[in-house]
Structure formats: C-alpha cells, structure tokens
Write a structure and sequence with these properties.
Elements: E1 8-18, E2 21-27, E3 40-43, E4 46-53, E5 57-62, H1 64-69, E6 80-85, E7 104-114, E8 117-123, H2 126-129, E9 137-140, E10 143-152, E11 155-160, H3 162-167, E12 178-183, H4 185-199
Length: 203
Amino acid sequence: MFTGIVEEVGRVRRVVPHHGGLRLEIEAERVLDGLRHGDSIAVDGVCQTVVDLDDTAFAVIAVAPTLAVTTLDSFEPGRRVNLERALALGDRLGGHLVQGHVDGLGTVLALEPKGEHVILDIRLPEAVAEVSVLHGSICVNGVSLTIQELPAPDVARIALVPYTWDHTALRDLRPGDAVNVEGDMIGKFVVHYLSRTARAGAV
C-alpha cells in the first residue's frame, strides 16, 4: 500500500530483457534508506518487488502482464521516474490509499500553465472514468492528485501545484504521452458492490 506522495524522482539506469519481461535498474538515493530485497516499491505508480540493490540503485523485474497494462515497457535509460516506498503502519497518510495496481493507461491531452499552477488534462481508461468524481482522488504515474473538473465523462482536469510540478516527474510529460492511472480504491469498491447487488436484484 502506498499514499501517492512521491519520495524521490529516480532515473532508469539499465533496461534488460528478462524471461519475457524486463529487468529495470533504477538509480536513487532517498528510497534506498532501509530498502531490502523483497520490499515493495512504486515505480511511476506500479507496485514492484525489489530483487537487487546496491548503494546507488535498486532493480525490479516487470513481468509480461505488467508490461501489457503499464508504461514500464517503454522505459529507457535516462528516464526520470516517481518513486515511493511502501507505507508503514503509523505513517502519515498525506495523499490517499494507493495500491500500486494500475487500472489502465491514460493519455495526456494538454499541459497548460495557468498562474502559479499547471493544468493537466488526461483522457481516462473506462475503469477509472467510472469511479472518478469531482474533487475525488486519482493516482497518475504514482502521484496522488485531486480532480478539479470533469470536462467530459472520460476526461479529468487536474491542477498541479508548484510543489508537485517541481518534485515529481510529471513535468516531463507531453501531450500524447501515456500515463499509469489508478482510480480511487474506495470508489472501485463502491461501484463493484452496487453492480453486484443490482445483478442480484437487491437494489
């Protein structure tokens, strides 16, 4: 479990094919503190397992099913990525509950400066659009964000505050880019429950 509060922006060092998947080596500093083999870590919002690490980097193996539904298959050396270690019980929950289980790929429609912040428009995958509400939470490339507007049923408009712009890799995005999107966990449970009860004739 994560919070969507990015701890550090790392950088991809190596990408190596591995049994149908990819071994990703990622340079980092802060998240290496206390990190151990087998720990979970969010890489651009995708929960991965640490398989190796040294004083300057850690490695994960993204398997084929993960590559099929995330942006990890497009990673190249030099790419900046948002990193967050798993939430420890008792930590502050500064963002929202994030599982690191990407629901689908969104598409950046626009990035436009507006005053002190930047407006980000994203076309959402259907699974995320159906659980997205005005002022609700959404996770984009591992960053906990708030939906400011819903200009279309499948489009979320988000205002990126200066701190988020300066301390995450979202500033590297361009229109047309794919992003990892995870819908609000509570919203997903509510929609699933209501659909099940409706099918059972309870509603």
